[in-house]
Write a sequence for this structure.
């Protein structure tokens, strides 16, 4: 053996599993949630990241404006 080991990464994460579970429950009629909530595990993480980036960008912009004075 050459000593090389293969490492696999990826797959379905927590939010992916949550979406699959919610989708299954919705399609089988166990929950009557809106499709917005069923798909929430797919779009909420992106919304959080965008929100953090916006807050950080505004904070950076304010710091730049304060430092120029």
């Amino acid at each position: 053996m050459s000593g090389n080991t293969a490492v696999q990464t990826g797959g379905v994460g927590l939010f992916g599993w949550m979406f699959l579970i919610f989708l299954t429950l919705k399609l089988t009629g166990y929950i009557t949630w809106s499709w917005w909530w069923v798909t929430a595990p797919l779009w909420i993480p992106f919304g959080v990241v965008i929100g953090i980036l916006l807050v950080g960008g505004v904070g950076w912009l304010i710091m730049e404006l304060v430092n120029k004075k």
Observations:
- The first helix runs from residue 14 to 28.
- The mean pLDDT is 91.
- The chain is about 70% helix and 0% strand.
- The helical segments are 14-28, 35-38, 40-68.
